[in-house]
Amino acid sequence: VEHGMDGLIVSTHGGRQLDGAVGTLDVLPDIADAVGDKITVMIDSGIRTGADILKAVALGAKGVFLGRPVVYGLGIDGAAGAEAVIAGILADFDLTMGFCGAKTIADIKRSLLKKVSYP
User: Which positions fall inside the FMN hydroxy acid dehydrogenase domain (predicted)?
Assistant: First the structure.
């Protein structure tokens, strides 16, 4: 922030190859809290569903990047397949928001989530 950064992307880009890599959703809240509204925080890595997007937004992300699902759609049916995947994920996001009682993105708060620890 002090060096003029406008935003950052929380990513494990390739970290899935490491058994001990920390997940992006696990570190996102600490990063978002540390920078506050000074810069835009976005996330990639592991975003596959509308529920994943809702979790990311609730934990502080202002945007998400979709990689693998869109590439799969592209491989199946070209641009139309990629567009269909994005439309499906956005429909799932809208549905998930409704299940949580969130009418707008501004209604998505951390309090909608519950972290469960397993022994």
Answer: 1-118
